[in-house]
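HUMAN: Can I see a protein plus its fold?

ASSISTANT:
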Amino acid sequence: MAKKLFFGMLLSMALLGCTNNKSAEGKIDNTGADVKADSIARAKADSLKADSAMNYVVKKGYIDSLSSNVEALPAYEYPAGSPVAKWGKLKVAPNAKGVRCMCDANGNPIQLKGMSTHGLQWAGVANVTARNIKALRNEWNCSVFRYALYVDEEGGYAYNPQFRNEILEKVVKWTAENGIYLLIDWHVHKPGNPNAPQYRCHPTNGRDLAGDFFTYCSRRYANMKHIIYEVCNEPNWHYEGGPGVDWTTQIKPYCEEMLEIIRSNDKDVIVVCGTPWWSSCPELVLGNEVADKDGKPYENVMYTFHFYSATHNDGRLADQPGNHRPDNFFKKMAEGDPEKGEKSVLELLPIFVTEWGTTEASGWHEFRPDLTDIWMDIMDGGNTGNQLVSWCNWSFSAEGGVCGALNWNTGKISPMDPEILTESGKYVFKRLHGKK
């Protein structure tokens, strides 16, 4: 049903308006105050021209010279026995069944398991400390940490560059020191279109925030084996009130632009692309994967799938009907439909579950370990592709309701005191240690 809905709503975008400012040599010139002022004025005007169908006229703003010329950090030496020391720089390669999946540097399938931050501008940043990341590795048994960078929501990255210039630099260092992978997530959420002016030509300064961010990161961390990029979290349309943010005309072109930027600096880092409907419909990518300007499919690319167990299951009605999705997600992801000749998504696409919860989609209600158990079995290889699916749980925080792993002001994270964990946190903690 989701597929019919999406294909009935394909709309093209009018990519006009705010363009790059270039010097005579064709390079971006950010030095003149008049150039920046003009770009800002354009951005403010164009940001008001998005209609209810989300036909954004803004294309992109400027990329700051500080980002395009940032110095690369030297390579890290990861601690012996750590996940990164053991697996090296990851890649996408076929498993024994020929299904593309996440693999170590030698092409052996592996599965990352870890936690995601909540929004750093809220309580999330309080949990991002050197001690806590060390605890996530040594006590929680995490092999990956997801840094969720909200952009335009109150206090987000657009208004607080400290998230990149200080906190991200520290998290890159802390995860490296513990030998765990870092998934850097450009948290497209509100607005839900990755091409919205708030991301591509921001009204406050005319900057292409997404292009600027991935230019900076891909140059700065090009020597790091533990970095992974998620270029758009959950493309959606709910907040704009429009009819759709589709893969072909909106999400895919954006992902390809970010891939072009990243690949110019880091040729083989894994890049994860968001998929339609809050990253719950990766099947809409099939037959139309991201490619370069010559039409060659990009390598080392994965696609997101997000689930919340009480919402995304086999279609059963949960206690919160407003978050109910009637599709049989278990079947489409793990089995497909053999009677119709349809293979499962996990047999056809390399998937990274960069966010999932034990509750319904808002995170506030319905802890459902029974339904989560089914998803855990699927991600552990219980699918027709035998694909091991890496995952990050939402969230390492006391924010966001029942799905938050931590209680407020109770117990200690390190040394671990069970009092600090919610019921969801206890469940995920056991799963991180391979226990049911």
In short: Residues 109 and 351 are 13 Å apart (CA to CA). The first helix runs from residue 2 to 7. Confidence is low (pLDDT under 50) at residues 1-53.
